[in-house]
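Troubleshooting entry. The earlier prediction with RRO gave an output that would not parse, so I re-checked the input for stray whitespace and re-submitted. Clean input:
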Amino acid sequence: MTNISLESRLGNQVFPNLMTNASGVMCISGEELDKMLESNAGGIITKSATTNYRPGNPTPRQQLLELGSINSMGIPNEGLDFYLKFVLDHQNNEKPIILSVSGLSVEENKELFTQIQSSNFNGLIELNLSCPNVVGKPQVGYDFPTIKEELDTVFSVCDKQIGVKLPPYFDFFQFDQVAEILNQFPIAYVNTINSIGNGMAVDLKNESAYIKPKGGFGGIGGEFIKPIALSNVRAFRKRLNPEIQIIGTGGIKNGSDVFEHVLCGADIVQIGTELWREGTGVFDRLADELKIIMEEKGYTKLSDFRGKLKEL
Ligand code: RRO
């Protein structure tokens, strides 16, 4: 299978294979990021950064479930200086590193993007508009005028390559309205989807919630959410300007899931829950499984089938 390539491009970055971690998993501490560097992931994304270090929500705040995961981490992170130093230290290495940013207000994002603009970073920056777990803060991704305000603001201070992380949408009205806003900006890519916000998982034995913050409500990831992830990848691929690329995130457990994301239009994909469950060996397994499927189908590169889902 040496003639099968999983290489992919996103903006000006070349990913030796299309798989990275999903932000939040294996990317908060320096040790975790070093493990990602050593792994066979095709790239890395950092934990969404705020201006200052945040300890995050009280524990327990994350739980693996049979078919996925629930979390209410509350953006625990080391602060932008730490992640900006990491990406600069590894700039132009063999694998691209995406810098994720999640200020808690338009004003904070303006300052964060101003700081990044004045640095030498030349990779991809992701504006996370979809954290579901900050107590008292609604997800910006469900507030369409604020999405526009955020984008107006960050693009007014930063002319680097910026992508946007979106929450899942569930109605064609939402896909249409969000795509119409995004198409007004020189966005490098859209990353869809973040976890499905405010789910509930119950620990039957103890008759309790699994996680402490927000009375047990948390973002749902993993197998549960694949159909929603695929629908969002597909819906945005059909609506966004062709130059806006797509990261497919959600429910990837096997090589066939990666194939499905690409078939719906993903340029690269991210693995969250399954990376948490399995560790960085997941990237090797998924690459092997995907190559077997591609070989069976006679494909040698991702562009042979990307976006080519047949509609009946
Ligand atoms: O840190 C979190 O609680 C978190 C974030 Br920022 C996010 O974007 N998605 C998620 O499931 N958890």
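This one parsed fine. The chain has a mean pLDDT of 97.
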